[in-house]
């Protein structure tokens, strides 16, 4: 299959085999998890216009509340938590800034996440001198941070993945070495996988970076509020990341509604 990415329509949650919302299996037998081949989310979906933008206001200047729009979740590889987005304790790490203000906080090797309601998050690697390297429209490009933001607010995302980072010089070199790669030469399906690979150097972020042998060691635990969660299982980290990003794109309210409908139907069937 190489780097060809088959485009499939995403199943909704009622069609997805999942775990018990409390995190426990109801059945004694083996659980069938989730494994999909996804399209390239950053490049195939045109950004949706924000109502404030249509009114002539710059989206980066608008109030953005991560706790209102974003889904709290954790990623586990077997029993190890390798990623966590949690707003407990005030969520100060998730404060967003205008691109101009973000520049004052960045250091070479930092991961940057640009966010906006109803859009996929866009990730980039800050390389210094006001510039980032990022995967944009099926090509790795070097841009000014303010241009890469496309008016979105941003934040430093170093804390999300719990892997040990490479040293900043290596992160920058990893990013710059890929500039110009595009189309079938790419090894990543979205900007997050590319940026995370640059910082952590793990093959799990690449297309086909892990053997698919039937086991599903990755779990995406989605927080539903009121100390309730729902868990999906995946064969590979890149598949899980694509589902996590879809949740970010449709937003917290839509994810909770999808899952609530799915769980209610399942409870009726039981």
From TrEMBL:
The organism's taxonomic lineage, starting at the top: Eukaryota, Metazoa, Chordata, Craniata, Vertebrata
Residue ranges of domain LRAT in the record: 112-207
Residue segments, region Disordered: 16-63
Short name of one Pfam family: LRAT
Entry protein name: LRAT domain containing 2
One term under GO cellular component: plasma membrane
Coiled coil segments of this chain: none
């Amino acid at each position: 299959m190489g780097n060809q990415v088959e485009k499939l329509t995403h199943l909704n949650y009622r069609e997805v085999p999942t775990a018990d919302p409390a995190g426990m299996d109801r059945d004694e037998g083996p659980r069938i998890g989730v494994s999909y081949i996804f399209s390239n989310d950053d490049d195939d979906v045109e950004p949706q216009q924000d109502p404030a933008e249509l009114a002539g206001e710059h989206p980066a200047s608008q109030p953005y509340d991560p706790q209102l729009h974003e889904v709290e979740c954790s990623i586990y590889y077997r029993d190890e938590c390798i990623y966590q987005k949690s707003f407990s304790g005030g969520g100060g790490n998730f404060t967003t800034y205008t691109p101009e203000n973000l520049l004052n906080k960045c250091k070479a090797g930092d991961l940057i996440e640009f966010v906006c309601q109803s859009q996929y998050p866009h990730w980039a690697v800050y390389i210094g001198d006001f510039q980032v390297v990022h995967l944009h429209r099926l090509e790795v490009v070097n841009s000014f941070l303010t241009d890469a933001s496309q008016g979105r607010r941003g934040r430093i995302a170093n804390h999300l993945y719990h892997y040990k980072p490479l040293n900043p010089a290596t992160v920058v070199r990893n990013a710059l070495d890929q500039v110009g790669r595009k189309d079938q030469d790419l090894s990543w399906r979205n900007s997050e996988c590319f940026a995370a690979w640059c910082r952590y150097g793990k093959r799990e972020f690449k297309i086909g970076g892990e053997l698919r042998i039937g086991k599903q060691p990755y779990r995406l635990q989605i927080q539903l509020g009121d100390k309730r969660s729902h868990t999906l299982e995946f064969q590979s980290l890149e598949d899980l990341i694509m589902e996590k990003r879809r949740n970010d794109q449709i937003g917290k309210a839509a994810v909770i509604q999808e899952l609530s409908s799915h769980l209610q139907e399942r409870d009726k069937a039981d």
